[in-house]
């Protein structure tokens, strides 16, 4: 997420305002500033243009700008210093679980590093949840997992429907684990990535078949009450599926954690 845009000096605005004035001004200004900061139009350490300039850029009042800046602070993107203006914070301070910050980071990341981190996080959490599910899953859950795996074998020529069932399979395991926080984190992360081309990657009948072979191994370990085997199968499945989808982009070494 390195800065790629030119560095605007105080009192300047290098990007035009609205092409169409939005209904919710504070939310729209916030979203636009998040994108500009993540994109590097306002790099870390640079002061945002002063209020009058931002007001003119977006054709809004100072109240709207102040509300937007307050939200940016809450997201960790800026810090307001009395007498020194609003300074853009370094990426390490950004709240990457925030919907706008994560979505913008994924959109602007050509190296796939953000998606690599997302997959590693998902892998850690889902492997642990599979470990727990192998100990706690009841017969209803096992029947559901078996039903989904069998159904996905029939859906390998219908990629969109296959992927819907894929998500249901993983969610059934997360629910069986009883870890609502881990499930919430995974679902939140995937909600931001699931429509992006970089995350979805390529798919085909052969890839769906390979993916479902991984699902079946996970199911068999859970049904066999094998926590370690279930965790290992989940880890392998998520890693291999992502390496296929990401193709040659980025640095695969980031996944070896």
Structure overview:
This protein has 11 helices and 2 strands. By secondary structure, the protein is mostly helical. Strands 1-2 form a two-stranded antiparallel ribbon. It is elongated, with a radius of gyration of 22 Å. The N terminus is likely disordered.
Quick summary:
Keywords: DNA-binding, Transcription, Transcription regulation. Pfam families: FCD, GntR. The chain is mainly alpha-helical.
Termini, distance in Å?
21 Å
Q: What is the SS-derived class?
A: mainly alpha
N to C succession of SSEs: HHHEEHHHHHHHH
Average pLDDT works out at 88
Radius of gyration: 22 Å
Strand order of the largest sheet: 1-2
Oligomer: single chain
Task: Provide the CATH top-level class of the largest domain.
Answer: Mainly Alpha
Fraction in helix: 55-70%
Shape descriptor reads elongated
Biggest sheet descriptor: 2 strands, antiparallel
Percentage of residues in DSSP E strands: under 5%
**According to CATH, what is the topology of the largest domain?**
Four Helix Bundle (Hemerythrin (Met), subunit A)
Total number of helical segments? 11
Pfam family, one: GntR
Domain HTH gntR-type: 23-91
InterPro entries: GntR_C, TF_FadR/GntR_C, Tscrpt_reg_HTH_GntR, WH-like_DNA-bd_sf, WH_DNA-bd_sf
Keywords: DNA-binding, Transcription, Transcription regulation
How would you summarize the topology of this molecule?
Layout: H1 25-39, H2 51-58, H3 62-74, E1 78-81, E2 85-88, H4 99-108, H5 113-136, H6 139-154, H7 159-177, H8 180-193, H9 197-200, H10 205-223, H11 227-246
Antiparallel strand pairs: 1-2
Helix pairs in contact: 1-3, 1-4, 2-3, 4-8, 5-7, 5-8, 5-10, 5-11, 6-7, 6-10, 7-10, 10-11
InterPro entries: GntR_C, TF_FadR/GntR_C, Tscrpt_reg_HTH_GntR, WH-like_DNA-bd_sf, WH_DNA-bd_sf
Domain HTH gntR-type: 23-91
GO molecular function, one term: DNA-binding transcription factor activity
């Amino acid at each position: 997420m390195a800065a790629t845009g030119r560095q605007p000096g105080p009192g300047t605005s290098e990007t035009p305002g609205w092409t169409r004035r939005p209904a919710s001004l504070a939310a729209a200004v916030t979203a636009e500033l998040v994108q500009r900061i993540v994109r590097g139009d306002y790099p870390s350490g640079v002061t945002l243009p002063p209020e009058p300039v931002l007001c003119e850029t977006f054709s809004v009042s100072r109240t709207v700008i102040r509300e937007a800046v307050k939200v940016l602070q809450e997201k960790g993107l800026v810090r307001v210093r009395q007498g020194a203006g609003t300074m853009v914070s370094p990426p390490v301070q950004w709240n990457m679980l925030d919907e706008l910050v994560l979505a913008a980071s994924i959109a602007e990341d050509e190296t796939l590093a953000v998606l690599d981190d997302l997959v590693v996080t998902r892998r850690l959490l889902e492997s642990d949840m599979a470990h727990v599910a192998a100990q706690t899953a009841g017969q209803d859950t096992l029947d559901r997992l078996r039903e989904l795996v069998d159904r996905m074998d029939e859906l390998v020529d219908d990629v969109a429907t296959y992927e819907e069932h894929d998500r249901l399979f993983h969610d059934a395991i997360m629910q069986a684990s009883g870890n609502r926080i881990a499930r919430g984190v995974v679902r939140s992360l995937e909600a931001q990535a699931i429509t992006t081309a970089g995350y979805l990657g390529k798919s085909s009948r052969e890839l769906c078949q390979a993916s479902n072979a991984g699902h079946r191994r996970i199911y068999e370990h859970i049904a066999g009450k094998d926590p370690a085997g279930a965790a290992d199968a989940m880890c392998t499945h998520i890693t291999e599926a992502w390496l296929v989808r990401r193709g040659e982009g980025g640095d695969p070494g980031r996944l070896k954690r």
